[in-house]
Amino acid sequence: MTTPLSILNSVFGYHEFRGTQAAVIDALVQGDDALVLMPTGGGKSLCYQIPALVREGVGIVISPLIALMQDQVSALRELGVRAGFLNSSLSIQEARQIELALERGELDLLYVAPERLIQPRTLELFHQIKISLFAIDEAHCVSQWGHDFRSDYLKLELLHREFPNVPRIALTATADIRTRDEIILRLQLQNAQQFISGFDRPNIQYRITQKNNPKIQLMRFLREEHAGNSGIVYCLSRNKVDQIAEWLSSEGFTALPYHAGLSSQIRQKNQERFLREDNIIMVATIAFGMGIDKPDVRFVAHLDLPKSIEAYYQETGRAGRDGEPATGLLLYGLEDVVKLRQMMAQSEGNEEFKRNEQQRLNAMLGLCEITSCRRQSLLRYFGENLVQPCGNCDCCLNPLKPGMPPKLCKWRFLACIARVNVLVRVILLMYYAAAIMKKFYNLVTTNYLPTILANISALTNGNRFFAN
Ligand SMILES: [Zn+2]
Hints:
The N and C termini lie far apart (71 Å). 48% of the residues lie in helices and 14% in strands. It has three domains: 4-196, P-loop containing nucleotide triphosphate hydrolases (Rossmann fold), CATH 3.40.50; 204-399, 3-Layer(aba) Sandwich (Rossmann fold), CATH 3.40.50; 403-468. It has 468 residues and is an alpha/beta fold. The model is unreliable at 404-408, 439-448 and 458-468 (pLDDT under 50). The longest helix has 23 residues, at 438-460. The chain has helices at residues 4-12, 21-29, 46-54, 66-78, 92-103, 114-117, 120-128, 151-154, 158-162, 177-186, 214-225, 238-250, 264-276, 309-316, 334-346, 351-369, 374-381, 394-397, 409-419, 422-436, 438-460; strands at 34-37, 58-62, 83-86, 109-112, 131-136, 168-172, 193-196, 204-210, 230-234, 254-258, 280-284, 297-302, 326-332. The strands form two sheets. Strands 3-4-2-5-6-1-7 form a seven-stranded parallel sheet, sandwiched between helices. A six-stranded parallel sheet has the order 8-13-12-9-11-10, with helices on both faces. The structure holds zinc ion. Residues 373-375, 389-390, 393, 395-396 line the site of zinc ion.
């Protein structure tokens, strides 16, 4: 008899299930819906691939990235699984072939882009065939990026209406409690069983520091700690990606650019080189990396501030999937905050969405500014409690000595200014101007500034300006 375990052994070559995999698979095989939160590298795809093979019919996997679909489908075919994909990279004839295979029941798994799925023609086809399950991969696209980049994900709630009897599984590597709630709401997964795995990635060393001279900081990091390693350098803009990639190449590294402004051929070529070759540094915007499965990425360096803790967690999570030591280095500065705030203000989302984005950015800044264990703080954000400081983040490794003045007060001061309203900003700037004058400088930085900063933080959380 075909059981999930026998498929795991015979098709995928693993001896046993990991973590929550077996429970998720059971739920789907029974016909229940599931919401799965599993860190990258936790074995998410087996959670839908195996039930799709156990249940009758074809499993439909909704995936946001064409490159990712191609990778997964070729990997599955190598294992002898009848898999295919439908997306805009296929010619009309090729798409027709896939449709015919579907009609004849010759596929076990079909990967499809969301914009293709919601077309009437596709839905009509799906109504004519037997479907074992719907898997919605990278389900946070419905929330975190929904308004900006993946509006098609918002339409996926139609699956529930059009195919009420087909079990659905939504998967993501990261989602805070609010995103989780939004996924449930938007995809109508109120009755889904939830499977939430631990978020800790103990082999990743988190380090966050201010930008002084980012090029020198990066160069030192690469030369002294990661010579000859594969890694990713994230930048906020396409321009900067091009510049940094060029500069690293001129310094003797094999560095490739990746961003949405490059042609799809170049992107694909660079991605393939990164996956297959060693010692390649991918310099990229956030367009790179979703679903990238390269086990030996030894570092992820951010040259700009990510826009949320979720993004930071997900991007650093691409390092060290093999469980070996890896580093997440983040260099941040005030200009990042200003740029991100502008981008958020200009985005198309409604006011509530923009407010949420701002709050997420503030939480990210908070993570940068703390002087206690970063991992504890990071995990707390995802609702997890790490009892002891981790011993593997910069705050644990280089604790601030008591009595030292707050680290780089000037920057923190400016960061606060970026967060508050205009009136408070004017007051703070006046204060800052006074502080620059040497005779006040000592007084301000060592005595009053921490108190003021605490008050401003309190203010941004809706509390009173002056605490007692
Ligand atoms: Zn720590």
